[in-house]
Structure formats: structure tokens, C-alpha cells
Amino acid sequence: MLEEDYAKHETPVISNNSANRNVEDVPVLIPEINGVHAQIIESQKKRLGTKRGFIVVKPNCSIQSYVPPINALMEYEPQTILACTYQAISGSGKTFSECPEILDNVIPFIEGEEEKSENEPLKIWGKIERGKIVNAKNPIITTQCIRVPVTNGHLAAVYVNFKNKSSKEEIINLWENFKAPEIVLNLPSAPKKFLQYFKEDNRPQTNLDRDYENGMGISMGRLREDKVFDYKFVCLSHNTLRGAAGGGVLSAEYLTAK
């Protein structure tokens, strides 16, 4: 495997690729959420037989919109999540000229995306035990991932049930007052305010809000109670900044600071 070869040649690897995301001693890092998983790198080095080389990966772009706002609500113990993502064409590495089939169209399937979107959050919320990351058992996540004719920005419609239901006001307060660890806040690429909530019914919008905090922040809106789930809301992230290159740079900055 190419990334492992680089690591074995004593090169630290920060990757956007999915190849190593399921390897038990490779952290899937969002520094604001699971920076503690960087501790597993020492166990990984022992396996690889390296002194300096290691692999850290960034999670799939599809989960960047809904994992951070759900993470801020972990004290209420989310049990089940339904997330429907509406993903920009840049997530496939294409432009409109390279993807004519998306013009005036919506494509209801992105190969492999739903499996990643359902499984990777559980690793991010997992715990380190005996030299490996053990995935969290909850929440149970089901997803639908859809390609839409947008250049950049992944929007998600999210439905969630909690073990301990809170009020709408408490949820918004937790989002608005979420603070990353101090070590993350001081990094050059880190957003000063990771999460923002819109009171307007027509926000967030991809075109208006994807560049929030230089594309490194997450926007939420339309939080309301639901007839089937406890709550539903809409959230947005920039898939090529927070969801790809920017997220990788932030991880590298975090590991350097550590």
C-alpha cells in the first residue's frame, strides 16, 4: 500500500484517501473532536517498525457537515441518526464540464459513500483500547448520499433521536458556545468559531454559507422537533476545504503542535 510504504520510509503521511480509514491503529482525525486519537500513533509506529513515519487520515467529506453538530450534543446520548447528504460535484473530483450528466439533474447514488458515512463517525467517536481504536456502538447511523449540481459544499438533512432529549434552546446554546481545545484554536487553519446556527428558515445555503470561517466552519439551521425523531436540522460544510485539503492541513498543524 502506497501510504504505508511512505510511512515505512520514515515519512509522516496525512491523507485524504480512504484506504487506511478502517485500519485499527490509524486515527481518522477531526482535531476539534477526537484529537486524543493521535495517541495511537505510537502503537502504529511499533507495528510499522518506524521512528518517525506514520499515517493519519481525514474522514470522508460527506460526514463533515453532520458529525460536528452531533458531537456537540453527545451529553444527550444520540441513539439513532438519519442523514441525507446533498453533495457537490467537486466531491468526485470533477467540474461541470467534466460531469455533463449532472446538469439539470440529481443523481441518487454515490458509490461507497453511504457505507463510509455510516461507519466512519463510529471510529471518530471510538476509544483507544490495547493499541487500537475500538468503534463506538452508538449512535446507529443510516444515510442516503445524493449528488447535486453544485460546485462546492455538502448539505445534509439530519434527523436524530436522543436517549435524553433536551430542549431546542439547549441544543442551539451548545452549538453556539462550542469551543475546540485551546491547542486547536491556536492553529493557523483552525476556525475561530467552529459552529454557527442560523435562525432564518432559509439558511444555511450552499452558495452563501460554504465559505464560513474560510471554509473551515460548519453551519446549521432549521432545528425543530420531528414526528418520528426527536429533532431534525440542516447543516453545511465546505467539502474541499474542511472536507479535504483544509482538514488535512489542520490535522498536520495539530500533530506538529502536539
Automatic annotation (TrEMBL):
Keywords: Oxidoreductase. The keyword Zinc does not apply. Pfam families: Semialdhyde_dhC. It is an enzyme of class 1 (oxidoreductase). CDD domains: ASADH_C_arch_fung_like. Its EC number is 1.2.1.11. Residues 74-241 form the Semialdehyde dehydrogenase dimerisation domain. The keyword Oxidoreductase applies. InterPro entries: ASADH-related, NAD(P)-bd_dom_sf, Semialdhyde_DH_dimer_dom. GO terms for molecular function: aspartate-semialdehyde dehydrogenase activity; protein dimerization activity. PANTHER family: ASPARTATE-SEMIALDEHYDE DEHYDROGENASE (PTHR46718:SF1). This is Aspartate-semialdehyde dehydrogenase. It comes from Clostridium puniceum. The gene is asd_1.
